[in-house]
């Protein structure tokens, strides 16, 4: 689905032989407030596909009866571990199309892991603690990141030229939001997301 509102573009049409750069992105809601935990992935257009070029922790812990981090982005084919730092046991599961799994009761200082072999969103819960919710975004694009509390993220090493940004957030009704950007920019690309409350 095309992104409905995009503002603040400052784009350069750079030649293909320019060195890689950093693409800075700011994600805001319809009122212009920063959006934290938006996952942005970038796929260069017109160049051969390449493997992931972004760092990922591949760990979603349980601490203080919540998943931490609450939103995680990992490359396709990653094995994500779920260490338990709480004094209570957890029973982590997902019924998501991208990955169905069940990690039965495990206690403090124990960990379980899952191979994520399909792209998409994996919504994670705990069978013991209903309020626990987490999201893992599995991407097959070479560049990806998650916005911080100011709605900002930087995608380092992006090539000059055209590429497609895909933006995901748990409060956006549409499955994915996409926009094609040309080149790298000195000013950040600002993306507005219509969040449901």
Automatic annotation (TrEMBL):
Q: Does the keyword Signal apply?
A: yes
- Signal sequence bounds: 1-20
List, alphabetically, the Gene3D superfamilies matched: Cupredoxins - blue copper proteins
SUPFAM superfamilies hit by this protein: Carboxypeptidase regulatory domain-like, Cupredoxins
Q: Which keywords appear in this protein's UniProt record, sorted alphabetically?
A: Signal
Q: What is this protein called?
A: Methylamine utilization protein
